[in-house]
Amino acid sequence: MPRLMLTDELWSKLKAILLEDRVYNKSEHRQTIEGILYRLRVGCPWRDVPEYFGLWNTIYRRFLLWSRKGILMRLFKSLSTDSDTEWEFIDGSYVKAHQHGTGAASEQPQAIGLSRGGNTSKIHLAVDSYGLPIEFIITGGEVHDSK
């Protein structure tokens, strides 16, 4: 059995937030979220998520649906309001963009900028006193952390 992350107390908070977003109260949602967290923590392909969490395809489809509807972002935002902000730390990390990742016609803005390393994006992350994320943004690679 894989290591689990959600305690009963944390699941009750997550369940209330999911119900606010009109996600049905299904018993398998807890295992689905555990499967999503497992995949994000381990970094394995979706097909390699253990069967203990359910069918990998179901977990992937729910992750994709909840991401597109903004449910996971609202979940993150509501959980980050309970943070200890006595101390806040910020940091940025560069992500190199693929050479074919720019130039396509799209209505959505692309967070890709030209820096000394080439085409890059930058993930800016702010964490609280415990090192838990409270805010993040993705910008072009030329944007400085202090901005």
**Most strands sheet:** 4 strands, antiparallel
* SSE pattern, N- to C-terminal: HHHHEEEE
* Low-pLDDT stretches: none
Structural class: alpha+beta
C-alpha-based Rg, rounded: 18 Å
User: Total helix count?
Assistant: 4
Share of residues in strands: 15-25%
The count of DSSP E runs of length 2 or more, i.e. the number of strands, is 4
How many domains? The number is 2
State the helicity in percent bands: 25-40%
Describe the oligomeric state of these chains in a short phrase: single chain
- State the shape: globular
Key attributes of the depicted protein:
about 150 residues; alpha+beta; 2 domains; four-stranded antiparallel sheet; 4 strands; globular
